[in-house]
Design a protein that fits this description.
Length: 278
């Protein structure tokens, strides 16, 4: 049975296309006791405007354990019950730290974390690298899987008596696909080096916003993404939110990807402000 839960949102992944649910966003957050929770599936762009929750905001929602997912943190939300509490108006990094790190281990050794994933199903965690060595950009397919797009088109043609064809088409309109894969090359406290892909809503939106400001120049847009995610973040007290995918959790040597970044000022720099403190 669904229970009412109060969740502090810390992660929204960039939307993907699902054959079953149209566009999906994986949301992760922490409960009041500090434990992790994943909400899935969430067709975020189809939520009512007052239900669209930003990061670092408390929401209340009914959710039940998702029995189709063996990962213990995964819950299926009742989307009609979403209630967003007061939205933040400025970055309060001390408050964010207090909520996010409550009763939670910060992993610095990837082997230890991967062992937890394999032994008890741990699929969400905070990781602090010893070093961030590089920010890697790779070109990928520019278009979504045509088979999935065809399914979305079919969904849009299933007329709803309360919507016009134009409204239905807009509801299932595919989100733009980022034509690059972004990854970090990291070193943990044992000296182990890993390359980990980033799946973050903020990164995808940053790329497209920079692309627009650069009048379509992709090289400029990519350089701006690197400027924030590498030059700027590495100078901060950088932590990563890591998550696994259901498909690769039990089979990949390292099942974790980066699903979000937490980048408060260094302790001695708390009073300094930045244009990125939004």
């Amino acid at each position: 049975m669904p229970d009412k839960k109060r969740i502090y949102i810390v992660v929204k992944t960039y939307p993907t296309i699902s054959k079953e649910y149209s566009e999906l966003v994986c949301t992760a957050g922490v409960l009041e006791d500090g434990s992790w929770i994943r909400l899935y599936p969430v067709p975020f762009r189809k939520l009512d405007i007052d239900q669209k929750y930003p990061k670092y905001t408390w929401i209340q929602i009914e959710a039940a354990r998702n029995t189709k997912d063996f990962r213990p943190e995964t819950y299926r939300p009742n989307l009609s019950t979403i209630s967003v509490e007061t939205r933040p108006t400025k970055a309060d990094w001390d408050e964010r730290r207090r909520i996010i790190f409550k009763n939670k281990k910060v992993y610095m050794n990837l082997e230890e974390l991967i062992g937890k994933a394999k032994s008890d199903g741990t699929s969400l965690a905070i990781f602090k690298p010893r070093k961030v060595l590089d920010f890697i950009v790779q070109e990928v397919e520019r278009d979504w899987d045509p088979n999935k797009l065809a399914i979305l088109k079919g969904l849009s043609q299933q007329l709803n008596l309360f919507q016009t064809p134009e409204e239905i088409a807009e509801e299932f309109k595919a989100v733009p696909k980022v034509p690059y894969k972004f990854s970090y090359k990291l070193e943990d406290d044992s000296g182990r080096r890993s390359t980990m892909m980033i799946e973050d809503w903020e990164m995808g939106m940053l790329y497209f916003n920079c692309l627009k400001r650069a009048n379509g120049d992709e090289d400029v847009a990519v350089s701006k993404v690197r400027e924030k995610y590498f030059d700027y973040f590495v100078a901060r007290d950088l932590h990563f939110f890591l998550g696994t995918t259901k498909q690769f959790h039990n089979v990949a040597p390292n099942p974790f990807i980066i699903i979000g970044a937490f980048y408060p000022p260094m302790p001695l720099l708390n009073q300094q402000m930045s244009i990125f403190d939004l």
